[in-house]
Amino acid sequence: MEQNRSDLVNKGIQRRVLWGAIFLMATSSIGPAFLTQTTQFTSQFLASFAFAILASIIIDIGAQLNIWRVLVVSGKRGQDVANMVFPGLGFLVAALIVLGGIAFNIGNVAGAGLGINVLFGISPKMGAVITGILAIIIFTVKSAEKVIDILIPILGVVMIVMVGYVMITTNPPVGEAVVRSVFPEDYAALVLPVVTLVGGTVGGYITFAGAHRLIDRGFEGKEALPLVTKAANFGILTTGVMRVLLFLAVLGVVSAGYMLDEGNPAASVFQIALGNVGYKIFGVVLWSAAISSVIGSAYTSVSFIRSFHPQLEKYYKWLIVGFIAFSTIVFAIVGEPVTLLIVAGALNGLILPLTLGSVLIASRKKSIVGDYRHPAWMLIFGIVAVLVTLVAGFLSLQGIADLWQ
Description:
mainly alpha, Amino acid/polyamine transporter I, 17 helices, disordered N terminus, cadmium ion transmembrane transporter activity, manganese ion transmembrane transporter activity, Iron transporter, transmembrane helix, membrane
């Protein structure tokens, strides 16, 4: 009887940790930029944007499955696998991840401040400080791991339910969107949106958020693969569901002939759909997206350096606190540094080819994965993802060159 009760408890903890990892990855990619990006692309390409969403989801699954499975089988984080493939590569990857993570976290904090501003009229900077303090408290409480595993899925569900409700009220042309997901009006025009979505969904630290979380919570070895594979798929599908719902909500509004506010297109979708109530719902969605991204960015970015020294491992929670505090202070003092964010975006486009490429090589090294045999179709999927993100990185670098001219 006691054994049965213990098994139930263990299964309950296992389920909580798995969903925590799934939503940590998913909500890390659903940040303030996600909302604006999806809205702008939808208003530009209308129903044809469905093709970009479908293509990006397929590529994302390929990237996530490779990374989650290989890392969990090896029991090592991304930077350690990279160092084993090519000495020193892991340190380069970690540096790029942390730099990009800090820059994007400043944007996440800014988004949280705007969300609070919409809800309560408090200034965005004060809202950002409040959010930063709340995130720090979450990581300093004794049961921080449990709090994160419970809080992140709740925030994810809140976002999905609210955006889903707004989508229903806009009455979008779903049938046309389904057709255009396979037969868009212009395939070539959608190349940039596809690589942008892939970079935003699995670029930088985001790809490793769930896998690192599972390793930190004790999931490793071949016996964990069935659960890990399911978690990786659910993570991408959760992000995909959120993007599809937001896409359809925007499509319903623009198809009805409404013009979106160029200054805040995502907010105007909610406001057009439901008036002032919709605007407040946008505030909830924006804040939920932002604080979950703050937590995901800080946790995962620090996870890329904590294995380099025992003292970093011992005090990693305080490193996370410092990461959040620094991001919040920078925004509160100097605002959102646009140039820094653009540069970080370019670096973000180059991180996944490095990290995923090293993981694909590692999948064939017995010294890393033992007797595990990585499926050939996953390897092919991964190679496609590497090529796509190389294109994304090249396009981002072109943007940087134009910026400095």
